[in-house]
Amino acid sequence: MGRAxxxxxxxxxxAYGGGVTAxxxxxxxxxxxxxxxxxxxxxxxxxxxxxxxxxEDSGTYGHGFGDAVHLLVLGDSSARGMGADERSQTVxxxxxxxxxxxxxxxxxxxxxxxxxAQSADLDGQVDQALAAVPQPDVVVIMVGxxxxxxxxxRSTSVRHLAMAVRRLRESGAEVVVxxxxxxxxxxxxxxxxRLVARRYSRDLAAAQTVAVVEQGGRTVSLGDLIGPDFxxxxxxxxxxxxxxxxxxxxxxxxxxxxxxxxxxxGQPTPDTGLAPDRRRGESVGPVAEAAVRAxxxxxxxxxxxxxxxxxxxxxGRWAVLRRRRRQPVPAEPAQPDPDSAPGVDDGDxxxxxxxxxxxxx
Length: 361
Prior knowledge:
By secondary structure, the protein is an alpha/beta fold. It has 13 helices and 10 strands.
């Protein structure tokens, strides 16, 4: 079964509260999750120094005139900023600072993300966020990694995310979701765990896109954005626990999310008003197909659109895939990795070959 078909099936099950699956699929999933559970014990023994907390980044950014832009951040440890040393290094802080500078308005950031959160925890986070800010302007959500590592049903994960997006859209907010990161980039995970984690996280990311777009939000692919850099410069892009992003890793993710946040706020960007450019890999098509392409294409945004005056075709919701222009994060000198010899890590080579096979699945 192709990834586009899997994404449609997962999102459909999420919309209708689950359903009956084939016995072979259940057995396959059980075997995969059993492997994840067994080898995750190995990963926990080799992951580096853990963190006690993450910086508190909620507050006002910028000193512009006019009403403040109300920015909410929801999700897990990546949204919280675990691995950052200072509040200015989190994704929320970077986006808030940039939005304040480019709009000339102050930005009020409210971050209710929780370290270790799963998609099911978004229900409570939305309650908390809307109690504090009843009418937010834009919401950034980053979630999914813990659903994979805790073996949560992908349809269950997607259902909670879709409900959160729907509630936030009903409040009048624009919603930008950074999809599940590619867990196949986590070097402490041994093979074949990395291959299993990669396939599950990419399938979840594609299904997240289908569900989010159908609820009126937009997504930005994060997995492939950070994957190559994390594989090539792990000492720079990973924090000291070798699992969460470093400040450089968060800056890389923020640089991908920022153009979509600006566009959602109506702030002109280099792409504003332009038709999709096929020379840059942009296109309009069924949302499930756009979702699969986004998983493979770093920093790609997927949002709803119309085609010939219609929002829906015979293969589902129409979506536009954009590769929004962003400023690259300056390269930092890589530090030697004490756990690998000079050259390319054999495990990474195996992982990349396995990734190519998984993409064709």
